[in-house]
Amino acid sequence: xxxxxxxxxxxGLSEQEITAILDRAEEMKQRLRRGEKNGTExxxxxxxxxxxxxxxxxxxxxxxxxxxxxxxxVHISASSxxxxxxxxxxxxxxxxxxxxxxxxxxxxxxxxxxxLLAKTVSAHVINGGxxxxxxxxxxxxxxxxxxxxxxxxxxxxxxxxxDIKHSRVAKSNLFGLTTMGAEVYMYAPKTLIPKDMDKxxxxxxxxxxxxxxxxxxxxxxxxxxxxxxxxxxPSLGEYSKFYGVNENLLRLxxxxxxxxxxxxxxxxxxxxxxxxxxxxxxxxDQVTSGVAVRMxxxxxxCNAR
Length: 305
Ligand code: CP
What we know:
The protein is of the alpha/beta class and 305 residues long.
């Protein structure tokens, strides 16, 4: 059971709550594998995807999750909404509430925007990614793919490499994975790693080899070119050479280690083509996990009260 109105971040969720979401998501993933898309859990419920930033995976998977459970998905993009006429986020929220929507999934470039919306509306609010802050459903789906492969999360060594500074995925994974008992190692150029990640429970590796050695999971992160001011690393080629993950590096991980990436991938930068398409990669499985996690979450939030 998830006794919450909203899901804004994994910070503050208990191990029991995360386990309950993953358990329900596992059931949903079995349904997807059987081709069952005619659930009724969200019958009569409307779910808005309110996206102020581009998205393929998050937006489509929330909309499909709603449809697969019998609900009505409605998409609003900032570029074609009354936001373009100067409407504030709070007024947009109040307008949607007046239409009796059940849940709003929001992606926004400003950290903290989903909290503001959640305080304003009576609909459930799910954070679909806010600025550099949090992307809770991405971390949940990453954990679902890990748990499916290893049967547990406790005790796993997870190496996260890449643009940690600008990554909401890295931060949500750190909260989720440490709550679930995994050891999280991070490695990035010094300019791309925030100072206090160790205080939040991360082991900051001094080399990518230290991060990956003996790892069960190696996660590459997308270089967030759109969020950078420039000058944080010399070039994409040098980034790939010194901070990317390649086949030689992966040999230091456990023989059955998996490779994850939240997508979209800059091929040949964060990960080599061979790793993205190789047998260790679970990147496509993560996408399926994304639909399953979002089905579980919508069901648990919308039907808890
Ligand atoms: N991983 C992720 O959030 O992808 P999208 O930007 O395509 O939603």
